[in-house]
Design goal:
- There is one protein chain.
- The chain has a domain of about 140 residues: Vaccinia Virus protein VP39 (Rossmann fold), CATH 3.40.50.150.
- Helices cover about 25% and strands about 25% of the residues.
- By secondary structure, it is an alpha/beta fold.
- β2 and β3 form a beta hairpin.
- The strands form 2 sheets. Strands 5-4-6-7-10-9 form a 6-stranded mixed sheet, with helices on both faces.
- The longest helix has 15 residues.
- The chain is globular, with a radius of gyration of 17 Å.
Length: about 220
């Protein structure tokens, strides 16, 4: 079953290497690793502990600016946001706070405060996060429903181009990466959410909520 749309029509031989199998949903086009090949939580955290991201790193700020700049241009002054998957060295949140916004943090390993997932937000960012999600339907559904009307969800993740390019794609080699989204997958999501979608860059996409009556469909197939 597809972890995003829960469809059952799956290409189980999309790609295979010496360590993992990659399957693809024929409905939403998500490419994913089967759960039995996920890292343990301990091994996953150990990999993240090696990240050296910091607000003091100018190169890292430049990297994040690909998401920060287009989102900042869409926000009202003093907006309230959530940085989902903020990691061991939160930086994107600092950039938004420097621009006059307030930002709450959530990270399963480093900022596990469930109370922030009970609030509503003007914007939500997920930078290099959704490729790690084990249950993307549940997790993205939850984020979408935290957004206020006209709220913006900003996602940074590298996108699948096609099956041939996938075979030599370095992004799939990170064992913490288990979900891979294409432009088609994001367009499918936008349709489910009745959202306005903007592809800003090769690895950045923005979803804008158009109505308070546009939650993620609970029983989508």
């Amino acid at each position: 079953m597809c972890p995003l749309c829960h469809g059952v029509s799956i290409n189980k031989t999309y790609h295979q290497d010496t360590r993992r199998n990659f399957q693809a949903c024929t409905t939403c086009q998500l490419v994913f690793v089967p759960p039995e090949q996920f890292l343990t939580a301990e091994a996953e955290k150990a990999a993240y502990d090696h990240h050296q991201n910091s607000p003091d790193d100018g190169a890292y700020r430049q990297f994040l600016s690909r998401l920060f700049i287009p989102m900042q241009q869409e926000l009202q002054p003093a907006s309230h946001g959530l940085d989902f998957g903020s990691g061991p060295g939160p930086t994107l949140s600092v950039m938004f706070e420097e621009a006059g916004h307030t930002v709450s943090l959530y990270d399963y390993f480093y900022a596990n405060d469930p109370s922030v997932l009970q609030q509503s937000y003007d914007f939500i960012t997920t930078s290099e996060v959704i490729e790690h999600l084990h249950q993307p339907k549940r997790e993205l559904e939850g984020l979408w429903n935290l957004l206020k009307p006209e709220g913006i969800l900003g996602i940074m993740t590298k996108r699948v181009l096609d099956q041939q390019a996938f075979t030599t794609w370095h992004y799939k080699n990170d064992l913490t990466h288990v979900c891979f989204f294409s432009e088609t997958t994001f367009s499918w999501l936008a349709k489910q959410w009745t959202a306005n979608i903007t592809f800003v860059a090769t690895d950045v996409v923005l979803f804008k909520k158009t109505s308070k009556h546009a939650p993620y469909p609970k029983n989508s197939a």
